[in-house]
Amino acid sequence: MNIQEANQYLTPNYARFPITLTQGVGSRVQDDTGQSYLDFVAGIAVNTLGHAHPAMVKTIHEQATTMLHCSNLYYNPQQNKLAKKLVELSTLDKVFFCNSGAEANETAIKLARKYFHDQGVNKFSIITATQSFHGRTMQTIAATGQDKVKVGFTPLPQGFKHVPLNDIAALENAIDDSTAAIMLEPLQGEGGVHLANIEYLEAVRTLCDNKGILLIFDEIQTGIGRCGTMFAFEKVGIKPDILTLAKGLGGGVPIGAMLASEKVGVSLSAGSHGTTFGGNPMSCAVALTVLSVMEKEDILNNVQARSTQFQIGLQKLVDTYTVFEEVRGDGLLLGIKASIDVAPIVNQCMKNGLLILMAGPQVLRFLPALNITEEEIEEGLSLLSQSIEGLNL
Ligand SMILES: Cc1ncc(COP(=O)(O)O)c(C=O)c1O
Predict the structure, then answer these.
(1) How far does residue 134's CA lie from ligand 1's centre (Å)?
(2) Which of 21, 141, 307, 330 has its CA 20 to 30 A from that of 160?
(3) Which residue ranges make up each domain of the chain?
């Protein structure tokens, strides 16, 4: 089926590139014409171990022949093991499994409200950052600090306020008696690759402690090694009360998770929340394999080394072309801020066999698989330079 035919059947909500991807191995993907691409998108930070990692293929095969789904009416060993592993890694205490990032954030918002409800306290509002992105459900577009995601969907759920990132005074001013939680991405991905600075996050934690407010970290894009530590919050040395994960956790299999401290997590009491597919044996088995391969293949060290290498290469581009202003980001969630619309660069890269993406109209964003090699980073940088040269910027 060609793209025109496909558009007859699909809702037009995605502004897709005009290629059809059919297969991939490692950091290379192929389209239906046989053209090969170096993949610096990784399914938007999902393909942690690249495409068709043998360990994941093995797990998927084994689990498919054992059990795909059994409902949360019962326990399943894969869900139990994954919950234990995530608790050990995060040092939080309780885990709820779902299927996507938006659902994990939806759960976090519900839990923050339920926690105060259970104590008979009337706190319900959530403060998030401008330029944040938290998902596409009604609650999570209300939480998102970007107007463009809200157009056409009013009336929106109430109880959300937005303040500029890295401005502690603005946050303090926004807090009132109704504030239940502050929800932040340690590094904003979709909103333009903006890093929350360490002093700010430390101050936010202190503010939350002093005022009895919950701190939620949305690590849907930054979690599972993307920033060179298993979770971005580890770099700051503070811990959120609630943490949300999705994307890289399943390495390509849909799974989301919300983690919470003991005292908060227990408020998600029996019957208060749930989802049919959440924590199914297949997704959990694959996520366990992703985490185990990350340990065996020393992926976090690779992220740190490749990040340094990549940033040096990107900085050279910034030094060479006046249209590029700065390199942004952390680990393998990197961007270049430009003074021009970067869509032509993304399109030219695609023509030259490199997939990259944008974070807003003026930011190039790069999210390669976490096991990307030194040679592949060099190749990507060279394809990127070649594409920019071809545009005569
Ligand atoms: C930080 C963050 N939160 C939430 C989401 C929503 O995740 P999903 O698309 O899986 O619903 C995303 C997706 O890009 C994200 O980057």
Answers:
(1) 6
(2) 330
(3) 3-52+298-391, 55-296
Of ligand 1's atoms, which has the minimum distance to the CA of residue 102?
11
For residue 135 and ligand 1, the question of a CB distance below 6 A is answered with yes
- DSSP state letter for 292: H
Q: Which of 218, 241, 324, 337 is catalytic?
A: 218
Query: 34: CA distance to ligand 1 center in Å?
Result: 30
pLDDT in tens, 142-195: 999 999 999 999 999 999 999 999 999 999 999 999 999 999 999 999 999 999
pTM above 0.90, yes or no: yes
Name residue 296's amino acid.
K
In terms of CATH architecture, what is 55-296? 3-Layer(aba) Sandwich (3.40)
Q: Which atom of ligand 1 is nearest to the CA of 137?
A: 11
Per-residue pLDDT, 392: 80
Concerning whether 177 is annotated as a catalytic residue, the answer is no
Query: In 3-state terms, what secondary structure has residue 78?
Result: helix
Q: Does the CB atom of residue 254 touch ligand 1 within 6 A?
A: no
Reading phi first (left if > 0) and then psi (alpha if -120 to 50, else beta), residue 271 is in left
User: What's the CA-to-centroid distance between 219 and ligand 1, angstroms?
Assistant: 9
The 3-class SS string of 14-70 reads CCCCCCCEEEEEECEEEECCCCEEEECCHHHHCCCCCECCHHHHHHHHHHHHHCCCC
Q: Which two tokens stand for residue 291?
A: 């985490």
Integer Cα distance of 286 and 289 in angstroms: 5
Mutate to test the pocket of ligand 1, among 133, 141, 146, 330 (most ligand atoms within 8 A of CB): 133
